[in-house]
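Handoff note, outgoing to incoming analyst
You'll be picking up this chain. Sequence as last confirmed:
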Amino acid sequence: MRLTGIPLLASALLVALGAVAPAAAQHRPPDPSAIVHTDLGPVRGQVNADHRLFQGIPFAQPPAGDLRWRPPQPARPWAGTYDATFPRSQCAQIAPPYGGETTYVEDCLYLNVTAPNRAHRPPEGKGRHGLPVMVWVHGGSNLTGNGSVYNAAKLAEDGGVVVVTVNYRLGPLGWLAHPGLETGADRRHQAGNYGLLDQQAALRWVRRNAAAFGGDPRNVTLFGESAGAADSCANLVSPAAAGLFHKVIPQSFSCAAPARTEDAAEADAVTLAGAVGCAKGSPAENAACLRAVPVKTLLETFDGEGMNAGPVAGGDRVLPLQPAEAIERGRFNRMPIMHGNTLDEMRLFVSLIYPRPITVDQYESIVRSTYGADADAVLAHYPAADYPDPRIALATIQTDFGGALSTCGHQDAFRSLKRAGVPVYAYQFADRAAPPLIDVPGFDEGAEHATELTFLFPGLLGELNTGQQRLSDAMVGYWTSFAHTGRPKARHTPHWPRFRSPDDVLSLAPGPGGIHRTDISESSNCSFWNSL
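Most recent structure output, in case you need it:
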C-alpha cells in the first residue's frame, strides 16, 4: 500500500534539536513584526506575505527525569531573543503505519503560533480585543503526532484568527496511570492524565500570551481531530479546564464515547511496570524505578502489550466523570460546540486490517462472530451484494454504529449536548474523492477518517482540485466564523442550522449542492442499531 499520510518525515531532523536551549539570535536585525514579547521573554519568528509564524516555543519545562509523570511545570524565562523560526522535537513515539519517525525525546512541550500579518487582517478581525484564537490538538490515538506539521496559514489568513498548535505527551509518557505515581503533591491528580494536563498548560500559556500575537485570550476555540477530539471532549467536561477556552470543535470522536476507567488504566500500568521490572517494591519504589526506565523500553513495551492511551475518568478534578455522564448531568464547561465525523470513518481501519480483498463468506463470518444472535438482522440491513467490495460493507457497518468514531455515536452526542442547552452545530464530511491518509490499491477509501484535515490544513495529505478548493474555502469560513462568534457562517455558502432535529446536520462535499442538510440518523440506520 502507498502511504500518503501526515508528512512527518522532517521529524528525523528535529530529534537532535529537541534539547536545544533558548539562545540569543545572532542574525541581522529582524523585521520588527517578527519579534513578539511573551511573558518569558521575546521570541523571533518568520514574517511571510500574509502571516507570521512562530515555532517551537516552550510552554513547560521538559517533562523528563524527576518531572516524568508529573504535571507540567512552568517553562523558565530565557535571556536574549528566543529563535522561534524552526520547530522543536515531537514527543516520544513509535512511528505509525501511515508514515513518520520514531522519536525517544522527552523534551517536547512546545507550541507553534500562526498569526495574520498586521497588514492583511480581514475586517472582522479589527477591534480592541484582538483576533479569536484557535488551539489545535493533533490526533494519532494519543500515541503519535506532532503539532508542527499542521500548516495553519490558510485558517489564519483567510479566517482572521490566531492559530496555536501544541505538542503533548504521548503513549505511556502521557497516559500511564500507575497508582505509585499518585504520591506526595501528586495525590491531587489522577495518574494517567498527563497529556491532558499538558494541553491545559498550553491553554494557560495562550491566556497569558495571546494578546502579544494579536489574539484575544477571552475568545479561544479548542479544536482537535480523532484523539485530539477525544481530548477536546475531555477538556470540555474537565473542571480543571474551566475558563481556558470558550468554544470547542471535536472532529471524529464522539463526546458521548467513554473514556478509560481508573481500574482499566491502572491494570494496564501495573502490567507495564511488571514487564519492565518495576513491580517488586513499594508504590514509591516502583514509581522511582519507572522514572529510570529508558524511553525506548517504555514505548516498545507499551506498544507490544497493545495498550491504550487517552484520558482517564475518575479520581480527581481533572476528569471526575465520564464525558457522557458529565454532559447528561450538566457538569461541564458550557459553550457553543461544533461537532461531527466523516462519512466513511472506518474505511481507514478496515483497510489497515484487510489490505487485501475478502470474500463474501469471510465478510459474513466476521459479522456473525461480531454480532452473534443479531448477525442475521445486521446482514439483512447490510447485504454484501449492495456494496462493490465486502470490505466496504464491513466498514459501513462499523462507521454507522459501535465505536467512538461512529455516526450514531455522534448523533448521541448531538442530542445529549442539545438537551444540556448549549448551541450545537453538527456536520459530516462527505467528499469521497478527498486525499486519503493511506492509499490502498484496489480499495475505495472514500471520506475515510482524517480526510477533512487537508481542507483545513492545506497540503497535509495531498493536493485539492478546484472544486475541493472551494469546499476548503467554505470549511475554513465555517470553522473560523464559529471561532469569531460561536455561529458557523461563511460567505456564499448554505446556512448551517443549529442542531435541533436529526436532519440538522450539514453534509460537506464539493460541487453544486454538495453542502446541504442531511439526516445522518436515517442514513446510518441508527433506529435499527438502537433497537438491538
